[in-house]
Write a structure and sequence with these properties.
The longest helix is centred in the middle third of the chain and has 15 residues, at 118-132. The strands form 2 sheets. This protein has an 8-stranded antiparallel beta sheet with strand order 5-2-4-3-10-7-9-8. Strands 1-6 form a two-stranded antiparallel sheet. It is globular, with a radius of gyration of 20 Å. The protein is α+β, with helices and mostly antiparallel strands. Helices cover 39% and strands 25% of the residues. Among the domains are: 3-64 and 148-204, Arc Repressor Mutant, subunit A; 206-291, Alpha-Beta Plaits (2-Layer Sandwich), CATH 3.30.70.
Amino acid sequence: MDGLDIDIIREMGVRPYLPGPKNPDSLKPSYLAKRIGSSVNTVKARVAKMEADGVIAGYQVIPNLRHLGLTGAAYYFSRPPDEQKADAMAAMADMPGLLEIHDFLGRGFCIDFTHADDDALATSLSILKAITGETKPVKFYQRDMPPAGRALTGLDWRILQALRFRAKRSLDDVGAGLGVTGRTVRTRYSRMAREGSFFAVPMLDPSRAGGLFLFEILLYIEPGRFNEVTVAFHEQMRGHLVYAKVPSTPALGHWDALVFAATTADVEDLRAAAADIAGVTRAEAWLFRGLHDHGSWMDEAIAAKIAELAPP
């Protein structure tokens, strides 16, 4: 991989659950080529190579969690010895509402999960603390998604179901499978996209990025200095930043970003540069061992919505 591949991934937008709607064209080669100033054929070839290498494992549509009566959060756990992490991850795999486990080299991993209310959040944290032995996990962020203004119809949910793990599927093909016209599907799809009712994203595995190191930097920030630190960080990481997830509130006191480097020496140089930013108390670099998706429960939730809205 090289900088052009990173540009493509950056423009695709790898993180779902955004505070606003996501451009539904962001996975199309023509859109990507225009955004990065390359040819459509070059983009197609680069994407095909990343797919073959497993860096991009597929494309999925993820519904706005608010339409399921949920929100989400991510926490970092660091207690289990490295050799016990596999057992810990297996033990938490069936936890209700689990979304992703980001496994980093060493003792740490980030757990991304959903919850309906504060009681459900407390229950999930209790389960994770018991499994990992971590008594004080670090909260990364609370998911900040568009409000679920208009309730989705049964056909809306069926369209999302048809695109769930085939986000680049032809909408005419979806219509044929659902017994409606492609025009109807396109109209519904465009409306849901404008409303922020779903997010179409690549399924990215940074651990398979050959030729580059994709890693996360976590910044711990002094109170009241969040805005100046984030501006300085963007400037410092110019040319290396893939994405930075801005938390719903700076009061969390920390911020994480996905960054790439050519060598392990560059990884440390970038981490040290981040640590030197005024207002940063500590910066940590986490290298990926793997990213594990656990969102299959959403398929059952979508099917339940379809059954609920089906005509009697």
